[in-house]
Design goal:
Elements lengths: L9 E6 L2 E6 L10 H14 L7 E6 L4 E3 L4 H9 L3 H20 L4 E5 L2 E3 L1 H6 L4 E4 L4 E3 L13 H6 L5 H8 L5 H7 L4 E2 L5 H10 L6 H6 L9 H13 L4 H10 L3 H12 L2 H14 L4 H18 L2 H11 L21 H5 L9
Parallel strand pairs: 2-3, 3-5, 4-6, 5-7, 6-8, 7-9
Antiparallel strand pairs: 1-2
Helix pairs in contact: 1-3, 2-15, 3-14, 6-13, 13-14
Length: 353
Amino acid sequence: MTDFDEASAVLVRTEGALGRLTLNRPKAINALNIDMIRQLTAALVAWRHDTDIDIVVIEGAGDRGLCAGGDVRVLYDEITAGRPEGTVDFFRSEYALNLMIAEYPKPVVAFADGITMGGGIGLAGHAAIRIVTERSRLAMPETRIGFTPDVGGTLLLGRAPGRIGEYLGLTGGTMSGADAIYAGFADHYVPSQHLPELREALGKRADPTSPAELVLLFDETPEPSVLVEQREWIDEVFSADTIGEIMQRLSARPEPAASAVAQTLAELSPTGLAVTLDAVREAREGDLREALIGEYRRVLWFGAEHPDLVEGIRAQLVDKDRSPKWQPATIADLAPDATAAARAYVPEVALFD
């Protein structure tokens, strides 16, 4: 095992043929900041051509989750202080890391145990082998703060079965491990008590046993996905062309769940909802690099041009009054071209060099 600084926000270790990356901010459910992103990136760069490392595992310290997402309070501070360069640097670095994980020449295994949301999906959702447990709670909850899913999440949402992606992206709904596998956010279900054994097996594997074959030794069948049961009405409602039409279809459905969803959407940022619907559908037609570029345009537009992101973070995390003042205030007030500016936004600094 390599030496490491236990106080570091990312623990970088090697165990046999295994490279371990452990997010180490358990009190914050391992929320990502720019220093953590840089440490993760540096480790992956160093291991890329290291012949002693065959497999990389990404995991979270503590028992609450892999990663609760990006540290949006820092994002709020950057925007309100008029430091756009900090916002640009964070998203460029984070998205480059997401793409690196997806394209990494060695298998990356992600333990999405516990809470794995937002930026955590960017780490786990693009790994070669994505593992969930009975404790897993996955989500892209960005609309809850007047924002839009990113970190390549729009691609995962766009490729989910039927209209499950639109449903999850707009509502910010939480998935169980079974839901995540059904929706295409994960590959295997392994009880959390077996993760240490699996990690040890990955580190000591003997060729020609592949990581995927080892994971199958611990894989179990989860309980049925709730999304499967709700698929029929979700597909009918969320295939509508606009947010307004989605709300109309929700009002016509007899399911109690549909009424609850309508109430949720009515409380969220109308602009965030419209931009998210457009982003998921655009990403469905492309690849991860294209999805990240589309997300980059939209998130920087929110940071520079639209007040709902700052207002959403203020209401949820700063003042905590839970009473955001969206602009516009209601879905009915959305302009027909409400998504055009975000889609066409041209950042001053390109995402990929």
